[in-house]
Amino acid sequence: MTEITSLKNKILDGREITADEALSLADIEPERRNELWEAAAEITARFCKPVFDSCSIINARSGKCSENCKWCAQSAHYKTKADVYPLIGSEECLRAARLNRSQGVKRFSLVTSGRAMGGKDLDTACEYYRTLRSEGGISLCASMGLLGKEELQKLYDAGVRRYHCNLEAAPSFFPELCTTHTIEEKLRTINWAREVGMEVCSGGIIGMGETPRQRVELAIALRQAEPESIPINILCPIPGTPLEKQAPLTPEEILDTVAFFRFAHPRTTLRFAGGRSSLKRDIQLKAIRIGMNGGVVGDLLTTIGSTVDEDKRLVDDAGYSF
Predict the structure, then answer these.
(1) Predicted local distance difference test score (pLDDT) of residue 309
(2) If pLDDT is split at 50, 70 and 90, which confidence band does 302 have?
(3) 294: phi > 0 → left, psi -120 to 50 → alpha, else beta; which?
(4) pTM for this one?
(5) What is the Cα–Cα distance from 198 to 152, expressed in whole angstroms?
(6) 198-230 pLDDT, tens per residue?
(7) What are phi and psi of 189, to 5 degrees?
(8) Whole-angstrom Cα distance, residue 212 to residue 217?
């Protein structure tokens, strides 16, 4: 029995693999990749329903962020061509949410630039959420930075039931990418979100120069967040950012990462997020089969995604219902 099979069987028996066992998956030989992918697909089939968890986001406040995250087009530290604008108006926000609801998308989130949302902008966003909650038909999420418990409570009271705060990268690698905040601060916000009653969405970005073992390290670190949803972004190098010349991952490296995360999180929704459109359709189908059972659909933040209809066809071909 191979180590991959042994770890797979441990998970199928309802047990959790250790950090060291998970890290060993990053060291497998390239010729054994198919074995790793097939094992992850078996775990997905056992623990996850064949229903694709779709969500949509709107870039509700853009640019001029004080944080120096090296991957981000919206950081004020770098000269990029990202749009800069204040909080969007009610009409634009509600139109986007209603359109996605009419297309059968399950979740909708406002995403705002900046270290943390607060003041009048937060109060205005809560008004938007209250309107959407009264209409029903779509679950409400928010991604508004390193909020405190009081701000998170306001969002919860307005109808938000899931909060997004990515760890972004392995603890051993994150300080090389950002020095204006820490993973510990992210986990504090995540813990407060749980305390007010929210679910958690937390993941990261791959392809920023990390090693395969650091991708596994991120997956293990995310266990502290206990997320219901883990978005996996593939870096889209943005001109003007320090990572603009970062070499892309191979499709095989991306599929390996999906498998790593499925081994570490057998029951959690793994969510296709930014960068997916750079993958050929057959690779996207493989990723869904291996473990990607959710996704951000439609246009994304500062990059173009795909249309909802295209995603519905992709999901259907992968054997999932939308």
Answers:
(1) 86
(2) very low
(3) beta
(4) 0.95
(5) 9
(6) 999 999 999 999 999 999 999 999 999 999 999
(7) -60, -45
(8) 9
Long-range contacts of range 126-133, CB-CB < 8 Å, 24 or more positions apart?
A: 126/154, 126/155, 126/157, 126/158, 127/90, 127/158, 128/90, 128/93, 128/94, 129/155, 129/158, 129/159, 129/160, 130/158, 130/159, 131/90, 131/94, 132/94, 132/97, 132/108, 132/159, 133/158, 133/159
SS3 assignment, position 294: strand
Hey, what are 167's tokens?
Answer: 């760890």
Query: Could you say which DSSP state residue 286 is in?
Result: H
Q: Can you tell me which residue has the tokens 């909080």?
A: 87
Which runs of consecutive H residues, i.e. helices, occur in the chain?
A: 3-12, 19-24, 33-47, 90-102, 119-135, 149-158, 174-177, 183-195, 212-221, 251-264, 281-290, 308-317
Q: Give the pLDDT band of residue 299 (cuts 50, 70, 90).
A: low
Number of neighbouring beta carbons within 10 Å of residue 282: 9
One DSSP character per residue, 56-117 reads EEEEEEBS-BS---TT-TTBTTS------B-SPPHHHHHHHHHHHHHTT--EEEEEE-SSB-
Q: What is the mean pLDDT of residues 300-317?
A: 73
Neighbouring C-alpha atoms within 13 Å toward the C-beta of 71: 23
233-271 pLDDT, tens digit per residue, is: 999 999 999 999 999 999 999 999 999 999 999 999 999
